[in-house]
Amino acid sequence: EVSGDAAGEGYTFITPGNPDFAPSEGLLYSWFPPAPCEGTPMAGTLSSEAEFLCEGQNVPLSISGTSEYASGIAYSWQTSPDESDWTEISTQVSGSAQLPFVSAAYYRFVITCNGAEDISNSVFVETLADVQYASVPFTETFDAPWEDRCGTANVPNADHWSSNPTVGFLPWFPEDPSIYSLPAFSGTAAIFQSLFNEPSSTSDQSTADLDFYVNLEGDLNYNVSFHYVNIIPGDSLEVLFSDDAGENFVSKGYFSALETADASLEVWNEYTVALGQINSAECIIRLRGISSGDFSTMAVDDFEVYACEAPSATVETSSAILCAGDEAILTATGGDEYLWSTGETTPSIAISPDETTTYSVQVFNEEGCASLTEFTQVVEICSSVRNADKANLSVVYPNPAKDNLTVEFHYEGVNQMTLFNLAGVQVVDRASANERIELDMTYIQSGVYFLRIISEGGQTEIHKLVKL
Asked: Which of 445, 446, 420 is nearest to 320 (CA)?
């Protein structure tokens, strides 16, 4: 141990565990800590790498030109909402800091030596505005300058869309698709997605969402179009839509590569999705990429939302009320091209549902505008009889009928009788405990109808009728 004048007043030299050690005469020793600071220190210049941040991120601050470390120097990182009332948030002894960001505020760096203080310049970090709902027509080519936004990697200079998640294997980000064995597209970049899911995973498939925020007021018919490429069999892209700021989403379209290689998906294809008639200022159109289970790639470009004059489409069924397991034909009219929720593209499709099911069809006109029409196919269990030839609940005559229709019931009790047109619309609904009733058919339009009889015991039969 050396103290006093030999070591410098107030300093002690100690060698732990070796009390016999003594410094050699004539050598120069440096002591730690350094000599105490003197005078007024220099705080230096403060800067921030981010001008806009979101709550929960860190403020990246750095200081340059500050006084070197000396004994007795104190450091303080401070923040203030108005450059008036300052609050200390850190005392770390470093030329940089990562401080939690809560809201828009000023930041500064303070250095002190024995009561003498110097304060750096202040920097202001703003809160990044929420994503804005874009007006239509809205187009995004993904070729704008890029910058990070709220932890969302690679979002361009626009406030109308974001991606989720933002890190790991599931982001959407701008790239030249050809780098990833995808065909190149117009412009400098497309929005490219790298999807990965562990091959051993049998749970939910990996997904990544790309959300577009648009104002779809006006009670107009709106469409979405985009170019899409996908070279991995089994990968898929789903188009989801919300008209309540993301509280609820419904599926509007689904595009998937086949189980075997589909050459048509190795080139860019343009798709149009009909959103229908919308009147909401806070709508979100979500493109959801879904991985097939291994590393996979897909890309989207030239995304557009617009209003257009949609065709007037209708859907009719060959059987307004269908027995479970039987087949019906749905036929759409009013357009030049058709896309059913089943994936079929013909005007008519054959269906055989086991329960009441709603089908939808997008009907496109020559201009490419589409309308979305839904049809609900009613399905009955038909536990007793499946057609009039096997009827044992009732007899219906005459058929065809012109003025009157007679129904004779074979079972006692209250029988429910309902008449439907081909569109599934209820025309007559009557309950009767009589053995025989007559229906006035004079006010009913000519055409084909279905008469459903339900006995008090729950047995059901259906008669197909022709009204002259």
From this structure: 420
Neighbouring-strand partners of residue 349: 330
Condensed to tens digits (0 to 9), the pLDDT of residues 105-161 reads 999 999 999 889 999 999 998 887 677 899 999 998 877 665 555 655 455 555 677
pTM for the structure as a whole:
0.54
Distances from the Cα of 340 to the Cα of 331, 349, 379, angstroms: 10, 8, 19
CA distance 365 to 312: 9
Ramachandran area for residue 83 (φ above 0: left; ψ -120 to 50: alpha; else beta): left
Q: Which strands make up the sheet holding 328-333, listed edge to edge? A: 314-317, 328-333, 348-351
With beta carbons less than 8 A apart as the criterion, state whether 98 and 60 touch. Answer: yes
Burial 370-403 (b: 16+ CB within 10 A, else e): bbbbebebbbbebebbbebeebebbebeeeebee
Please tell me the distance from the alpha carbon of residue 348 to that of residue 338, in angstroms, as a whole number.
9
Bridge partners (DSSP) of residue 390 are: none
**pLDDT tens digits, one per residue of 375-418:** 888 887 654 334 434 447 788 888 888 888 888 887 777 788 88
In terms of DSSP bridges, do strands 207-230 and 172-175 run parallel, antiparallel, or are they unpaired?
Answer: unpaired
Which residues, including other chains, have CB under 8 Å from residue 113's CB and lie 6 or more apart? 37, 38, 39, 40, 41, 67, 70, 72, 73, 74
**Residue 284: count of CB within 10 angstroms of its CB:** 22
Q: What are phi and psi of 388, to 5 degrees?
A: -65, -25
Listed in order, strand segments (DSSP E) in 243-295 are: 250-256, 269-290
The answer to whether residues 197 and 207 touch, using CB atoms and an 8 Å cutoff, is no
**Whats the size of the chain, residue-wise?**
468
